[in-house]
Amino acid sequence: MYRLPTRRSLVGISALRQHYLTPTCVRNQRYFGHSSSVLSKTSDKDDNFVSPNVLVKENQGMEGEDKQVSMDKASKGPLLSDNKYEYGVKLPAWQEKIGEVVTSVFRLDVDRIRAGPIAGSLYYGYCKEQGLIQKDPTTGELTKTASYWYETLGLEPTFATWFQITLLHTWILFVRMRAMPFKYGKNYQQKLVDRFFSDMEIRLTNEMNITSGRIRDQYLKEFHTQLRGAVLGYDEGFSTDDLTLAYAVWRNLFNAKTEVDYVALESVVRYIRMQLYVLSKMSDREFGFGKFAFVSPDEVVYRLTEQEEKLLKERVYQEFESDPSKMTISNRSKLSLDN
Amino acid sequence: MSNLKSLGTSLLNKINHLPKERLNYSISFKESQYERFRTLAGAPKKYVIKQKKPSVKEIIFRRLKPQDISIRPEEFSEKLSPENLKQMIHSLDNLSSNKFAQYYKVGDKLMKPSGYPDYYQRLMGEIQGTNRESWFSAFRTVVFGK
């Protein structure tokens, strides 16, 4: 059967991104990824190549003080669920065999089935953990992504802010899902948003202690309205210009706060454009198989040269189509490797 | 202080040249930022900014903020430094020049997505009012999903 997403993969970076897309940005190091890139000849060398996180830290904002987020507010529940299969436990071989037989006999569309574990579990996990207040297992401190949103950008560490951060990442994935074939893209979007709201309901009950179903439903309806408004604003910004995108970010993520730091707005716009660029360079198959992971705010994405794009494509073909005869039924796919 | 004022004037000029939002939102970025910085540049009041409803906490503990959102003169040196203002002007320039959209070009793959090829054209047509959805096309979208 298809591989279930593992807990480890939620914090890992895919090999492709590591090698080609995001050389880690070291503070103050103006590193040009590709000497042949057009940008390296024409760019403004002062600020082009710093990560969104460094951009804000180097240009201290209005308040001029570091916010510290208390770990008392750390999320207490599991990242996804109590189901062991969401954390890398593999099915026994005999169950996998049965799954293969059923898929083959009933000619099930595996690309549709894959939407559940990939969009509803793996990708939702990525979106959720970005703004989740939790300890980094290696350092014991706040995770890098949460530190960026709450400490560097100074957003209020509340449930509503977590919702807005998760929503922003969900929208980024929506943009790529729209570029998949209609029936698959729609299915991926549906699974992602379904999981988002079912998880919110669980968090509202267990962590916010809202036990009344009626009140919970009211909150969910309110959040749904916010989702529709935010998607409209982000879509408008994406299809027009950076300034419109910044307006949308200010209105949603920064809650239309008057005392906003423009450096923070610029940083978030840069962050969003970086993610969308990486997604635009991924084929449907890679994306559909869960090979995407969000670029950390500490990293920088450089434009790829034509040669690098070619190399990337070759690598992807090698990974997915090296030996089709050995491929299990559940690993076959109709998703394109070229789009 | 004079340095702050000249930077404030320059920032206010840039804010004045920002385009307004296409949709009619309850609070506009341009208007709220103009009102925020106008005292720094000594400019007159121009817009009425709607105040957000106070939260329950604010009502209970009387933490209601004053109606005027502009920075008061006595707060200038406390809240702003010339460096901050320079950075903010620089960021606003970067956003206005569409720098990141041009650098991270995504191409037709995402702008005309194969699942919904005219998604963004329809959206912008509706927002700008140039190509409004008809009753029939809206119904078709609801039934077939695109």
Fold and architecture overview:
The complex is a heterodimer of chains A (about 350) and B (about 150). By secondary structure, chain A is an all-alpha fold. Chain A contains 14 helices and no strands. In chain A, helix 4 (about 50-60) packs antiparallel against helix 12 (about 260-280), helix 6 (about 110-130) runs antiparallel to helix 8 (about 160-175) and helix 11 packs across helix 12. Chain A is globular. Chain B is mainly alpha-helical and about 150 residues long. Chain B has two domains: about 1-100, no CATH class; about 110-145, no CATH class. Chain B is built from nine helices and no strands. Chain B starts with a helix and ends with a helix. The model of chain B has no long low-confidence stretch (mean pLDDT about 85). At the A-B interface, helix 8, helix 9, helix 10, helix 11 and helix 12 of A face helix 2, helix 5, helix 6, helix 7 and helix 8 of B. Chain A: InterPro entries: Ubiq_cyt_c_chap, Ubiqinol_cyt_c_chaperone_CPB3. Chain A: One of its GO terms (biological process) is mitochondrial respiratory chain complex III assembly.
Summary, kept brief:
Chain A has 339 residues and is an all-alpha fold. Chain A has helices spanning 7-11, 15-21, 38-42, 52-58, 93-105, 110-130, 144-152, 159-177, 182-206, 213-239, 242-252, 262-280, 284-288, 306-321.
Query: What integer value in Å does the Rg of chain A equal?
Result: 21 Å
Helical coverage of chain B, percent range: 55-70%
The number of helical elements of chain A comes to: 14
Write down the domain tally of chain B: 2
Described by strand count, sense and barrel closure, the largest sheet of chain A is: none
Q: Give the distance, in angstroms, between the N- and C-terminal Cα atoms of chain A.
A: 25 Å
Following the backbone from N to C, one meets helices and strands of chain A in this order, namely HHHHHHHHHHHHHH
Tell me how many strands of chain B there are: 0
The succession of helices and strands of chain B, N to C, reads HHHHHHHHH
Terminal CA distance of chain B: 57 Å
Percent of residues of chain A in helical segments? 55-70%
**Percent of residues in β-strands of chain B:** under 5%
Q: Helix tally of chain B?
A: 9
Low-confidence stretches of chain A: 1-47
Mean of residue pLDDT of chain B? Answer: 84
Report the principal-axis shape of chain B. Answer: extended
Structural class of chain B: mainly alpha
Q: Structural class, judged by helices and strands of chain A?
A: mainly alpha
Total strand segments of chain A: 0
Unreliable residue stretches of chain B: none
Pfam families (chain A): Ubiq_cyt_C_chap
InterPro entries (chain A): Ubiq_cyt_c_chap, Ubiqinol_cyt_c_chaperone_CPB3
GO biological process, one term (chain A): mitochondrial respiratory chain complex III assembly
Family (chain A): Belongs to the CBP3 family.
